[in-house]
Specification:
13 helices, globular
Length: about 325
């Protein structure tokens, strides 16, 4: 479905850019959230394959035409987070009223779902929710809070998408066999990937980034400190979050969105691959943030996502997790 939408969109965009009239639109008026972000901050969005520019109306059409949107964010980015929130708010504003949206967040772990459910049901106040879910400014930034609140107001569900860090850490230090031996209740909180080495291209990118973290004690590599050890942990994140999205789709939620660090999804990362394995017919749209300004799609960003949004640089080194 999205391929047809994109063809129409890019024809319309080229006509607008060339100054030609395209006639009246039949779509309802575009909500102001993302469009206003574009005006206020100068963000630019492009099709990640063709480089065609995507305007505010295009964004709404493409996003709502997908079964699930994966927002590949730059954690803590002062522009990228509000941009994702604005797109999500627009998606909620134009949804059918009988649809129940689902927002999934990487920063929430599955064993925190009860706190989320109790807060959404009005059983606990926000202060208690923040405490029970162990929220802070770093793991519940303003952009995520805006998406959470918009979902709550829309009568949707918020899903803790990730595996608990204590189990993810065990994947690195003890291996998958240790996790397989855990109780059924523990196993409900995480999903193991099909293989320990992950998709080839994803593994190569990960090892290249993590290569500098090798550590030795003079007698060889310390247990759990090889890049491949860290990859085991990373893949548990990927497999668990993909499974969480697949569950939301199986439950019939619309629209569905996952907010996740961009490395997991860019260039068809492991989360994307694992999701497509579970839901092979699903139309998965990746919207990936790039931390610089550009008036065109840069060569190195081709294929980074279905849509690449330039949100400007920020002085930080931990762009992803």
């Amino acid at each position: 479905m999205r391929k047809v939408l994109l063809t129409t969109i890019f024809f319309t965009a080229s006509m607008v850019l060339s100054g030609c009239s395209v006639g009246p639109m039949v779509d309802p008026p575009m909500p102001k959230a993302y469009g206003q972000m574009v005006v206020d901050s100068g963000v630019r969005a492009f099709d990640g394959r063709t480089g065609e520019p995507i305007n505010s109306l295009d964004m709404r059409r493409v996003a709502t035409g997908a079964d699930v949107v994966l927002f590949g964010e730059l954690h803590g980015h002062p522009v990228g987070l509000p941009v994702a929130a604005a797109i999500w708010q627009d998606m909620l504003a134009v949804r059918d009223r009988d649809e129940t949206p689902a927002l999934l967040l990487e920063f929430f772990e599955r064993d925190q779902q009860l706190a989320i459910d109790e807060y959404l049901a009005g059983m606990i106040e926000e202060e208690d929710f923040i405490k029970k879910a162990a929220r802070s400014a770093s793991n519940f930034p303003d952009g995520h809070q805006a998406m959470f609140s918009a979902t709550k107001d829309a009568g949707g569900v918020v899903i803790a998408a990730n595996a608990p860090r204590r189990y993810v850490r065990l994947a690195r230090t003890e291996g998958y066999d240790h996790l397989r031996a855990m109780s059924p209740a523990q196993r409900e909180t995480f999903v193991l990937p099909p293989t320990e080495d992950g998709p080839a291209a994803y593994r190569e990118r990960f090892v290249e980034i993590m290569g500098g973290m090798r550590s030795t004690d003079g007698a060889g590599k310390q247990p759990g400190m090889d890049p491949m050890d860290f990859l085991r942990s990373q893949l548990v994140w990927d497999a668990t979050m993909a499974d969480s999205v697949a569950d939301a789709l199986r439950a019939g939620h619309e629209p569905v969105a996952l907010v996740i660090g961009r490395f997991h999804v860019e260039f068809n990362g492991a989360t994307v691959e694992y999701l497509k394995r579970q839901r092979p017919g699903a139309d998965v749209l990746t919207i990936v943030m790039a931390d610089r300004w550009s008036e065109e799609l840069a060569e190195e960003d081709k294929g980074r996502g279905d849509i690449v949004i330039y949100v400007g640089p920020v002085e930080r080194s931990d762009e992803d997790a």
